Amino acid sequence: MTDANVVGVGMTAFGVHGSTLPDLFAEAALPALDDAGATADDVDAFYLGNAMGGQIEGESHLAPTLASHIGLAGVPCQRYEDACATSSNAFKNAVRAVEAGQHDVVLVGGVERCSPETGKETDAMTRIFASAAHGAYERPTGLTFPGVFALLTKRHMHEYGTTPEQLAAVAVKNHRHGSLNPRAHFGSETTVDEVLSGPVVADPFRLHDCCPFSDGAAAAVVASADAAETLSGDPVRVAGVGHATDIVPIADKAHPSATQAARDAAGQAYEAAGVGPDDVDVVELHDCFTGAEVLATEALGLVEDGEGGPAAAAGRTSLGGEIPVNPSGGLKAKGHPIGATGVAQVVELTEQLRGDADSRQVEAADVGLAHNLGGDAATTIVSVLESVPRRDSDQRGEVAR
Amino acid sequence: MSESLDAYRSDGRLTTNGWRAALEDGVLLGQACADCEHVTAAPKAACARCGSRDLSTVQLPEEGTVYSVSRIEVAPAGFDAPYHVGLVTLGDARLTARLSDAAEIGDSVSFQNAVTTPEGPAPRFG
Prior knowledge:
The structure holds two protein chains of two kinds.
Chain A: E1 4-11, H1 21-36, E2 45-49, H2 53-57, H3 62-69, E3 77-80, H4 86-99, E4 105-113, H5 122-130, H6 145-160, H7 164-178, H8 192-196, E5 200-202, E6 205-206, E7 215-224, H9 225-230, E8 236-245, H10 260-273, E9 282-284, H11 290-299, H12 308-313, H13 330-334, H14 341-354, E10 367-374, E11 379-387, H15 391-395
Parallel strand pairs in A: 2-3, 2-4, 9-10
Antiparallel strand pairs in A: 1-7, 1-8, 4-7, 5-6, 8-11, 10-11
Helix pairs in contact in A: 6-11, 7-11
Chain B: E1 9-10, E2 13-14, H1 16-24, E3 29-33, E4 39-40, E5 55-59, E6 63-72, E7 83-90, E8 93-99, E9 108-117, E10 120-125
Parallel strand pairs in B: 8-10
Antiparallel strand pairs in B: 1-2, 3-4, 3-5, 6-7, 6-9, 7-8, 9-10
C-alpha cells in the first residue's frame, strides 16, 4: 500500500458569492491543480462533496458537470453526501483509492452555496439544513441544527458545569483567529459580552455561538508517493483517516454528549498514524456551534472530558496555547459552506504543515488533525496529516524520503 | 403486546408509519430488543444498538424526565418560534419531543398529545 499525499490545495474566500457552483468550484480547483503542478492529464479521478445542491439550487449530477467545467471530462467522478461531513468523506475515499493503487492522482473538492444570495432566507435554509435530522422522530418536533447541538451542549453543561461564558470564549477565540485569515467569512473580533448579549438562536446558543450560512469551495490534489515525486507541489502526508457513525436519532444514542462517532473515528486515525492526541500540533475541528468545539476537543482526547470549556476560556486552545484549535477561524469565523468544509480543513492543515499559514501559523507544526462532523453527530471523519521535509532539502540530499 | 396494538403493525413489525398512526391516536409506541434489551422510542427494522431483528412492540411510559432541552427561537419554514424541544427519558427509552413549556433537565413531564406540524406528528409533553 502506498502513502497518500496532499500535493496541492486551493480554496475560495468563504462568505457570500454570486457565482454559479461550477464557477465557484473552479476558483478552488484550478489553483489546487496549479499548486500541485498538475495538469488535467495528470488527474485520474474526481471525488466531489456537495451536500444540498439539489435542495438549495436544484442541481444534481454535479460531479461530471464540475469535471467538464475544469477540464477533467472523461475521468471517473463521484459525489458524496454526508451532511456537514460531506467533503471529508470524499477526501477519505480519494485517499483510500490512492492508497489501494486504484488511482495515482485524484482531485477532491467540495462546493456549496448556503447564503441568502441563493434566494433562500434563514427560515428556508434552516428547514433545508434540518433535512439531515431524522424525518419521523426529530424533524416534526421542530428540531433545528442549532437545536441539535444545543441539546448536546445543554446536557454537557448539566454533566460538567460548562458555562455560557466558556462557550463564548470559543467564539471569541475563533473570531480572533479568523481575523488573521483573509479567506474568513468574518474578519472581525468579538467579545464575551457581545456574544452573551446576542439574540438567542437555540438556547444556550446565541447568534455569535453559531457559524454563518456561507458560500465557498475548496479543493485538494491527492497523490501516491510515486506520483508526488513527479509533481512540483510540496507534499503533506496523509498519515491516517478514521470514519465512524453513531445512531440516528440522537435520542437513541447511548450517551449523546460524548459524540461517540468522533471518539471512534479519532481512535482509528490515531492508530493508523501511530500517534496520539499529545503528538498533535494543530487542529481544525467542526465548530459549527461553540458547544460543538467543546465536545470535540474532549472526544479527540485533546483535553480531559469536562475540560473543553475551561480549556477554551484559559487560552489552552488558542494560537500560542498548548494545542491551537481552529487557527483558520473554524466554521465559526471562517464560515461553513457545508460541502466545502471538510476539504477546507485539509487546505488549512496543508498550509500549516508546509509553514505557509502567515500570521496564523502554528509554530513547529508537524502533525495536524482534522475533525469533520455530519448530521446529528452521526457521522465523523478524522484525518491526521504530517509534514514532509521540504523538497529543496531533498535536492540537497540531506533528507531521505 | 396487546392485540389492540396490532393495527399499528405491518407483517408483525412496527413501522414508522405505524408509530405515527399510534402517536396521532395518543399512543406512544416503541420497541424492545430481545437480544440486547435496548428499548427505543424510534422504531426501526432492526435494533440500532445490536442489529437484532427480534424486536417486540411495547407501549412506552407516559411519564418521564427531561434529559436535555432547548428553546428554539429561529425556526424552520413552517414552524412558529419560540418553542421548546427536549430529549425525554421514558423508562429505558429516550424520545425527542416538543415540550409545552420551559423546562429544566431532570424535570418530570408527562405525555399530552400529538402536535401536528408540517413535518408530521410530534409527541408533546408538559
